User: Fold this.
Amino acid sequence: MTSDLLIKQAEIVLPEGELLLGDVLVQQGKIAEIGTALHSESARIIDGKGLTLLPGVIDPQVHFREPGLEHKEDLFTASCACAKGGVTSFLEMPNTKPLTTTQAALDDKLNRAKEKCLVNYGFFMGATADNLDDLREASPACGIKIFMGSQHGALLVSTEEEIEPIFAKGDRIIAVHAEDQARIMERRKEFAGISDPAIHSQIQDEEAALNATKLAVKLANKYQRRLHILHLSTGIEAEYLRTHKTPWISTEVTPQHLLLNTEAYEKIGTLAQMNPPLRSPQNNEILWKALLDGVIDCIATDHAPHTLEEKAKPYPHSPSGMPGVETSLVLMLTEAKKGRCSVEQVVKWMCTNPAKLYKIPNKGEIKIGYDADLILVDLNNYRPVLKENLSTKCGWSPFEGWELTGWPVYTIVNGNIALDNGQLCTDVRGKALTFES
Ligand code: DOR
Assistant:
């Protein structure tokens, strides 16, 4: 049951970055009042003194592995990790087993999420070469996902002939994993036999990413179709988008593409292996600049857990992907504390803009009438990322040992407390997200 909440004396980050040292009253799952010296007879009081109140994070790209791959993660463990990381809503990708390519598979995920998820959820429909009708009609879906590269099986839709009809028909947002599969295949042959995982960044090189991004932009512009380019990894793509992005194109970056680079392979080996791969330190810098300049619109984690046993296989048998929902917000808030960006910008990139890009109503800002998806974070308490504190089933983080600040103390989902003074409330359940057309 949702009870009313009164959050007292927090530093509140309001829309447009306005700050208020004050109170927020939550009634029936919504933000009812924002002000100073608010009173309520019946609400539970949460002491926000010394804490900062932000809108809950909306993570627009995660892989939560259920159904079919639950040995890596499931919707319960993943959503516990979300609550700990301040993520109150997520948009999940279709490469599960079965693939999310039909209404039935989408319904199955929604039912599972309703049973198990502590936070709010939305799911992508996965494009294949022949499911155009499902892509246009399945509901509620946050969008269409096209793997232009770095996939195998039915979800790999890599040629212009296969991709173009998806852009040509319908108006739903298309999110692309932009890597040029033909180039990757060629380069795999060239570098065959090398087991140093650092070779991954050379096989799936910057040009492979740029080729696919250019093709997606060309098709989006031809049909004026809403396009979102997932996990931008290279400076050359960012510079290309600086001059070629149109109002119907958006893009995102992951914390790992901002904060890790090819030097990570030496320290953490295959744990640094992901798609698109980590790049050079210079790329980190150009991506940061593009984010600060507004060329990049938002941040996503691409949370893609694999077990340590799977990751221990020698490259190229080791799978690509790393977890992220528990560390994304604290990584970015730590950067804000260092002065690289502001807390208000972090809110824009992780809360406000994902809601706008995917047209999720009443979320992403602290406003009267909006859903009470709220987090209270402590910006003054540095703590290391420790694997024993993680909720993700895979049990590791590429950021292990990093001293970070801004850890959520409370995570509130539709007015329900999912993280209560640092303790998970595992009986809380989120809701299915809705998407405006
Ligand atoms: O590294 C990755 N792993 N990138 C993706 O886009 C997919 C993901 C996965 O599902 O493991």
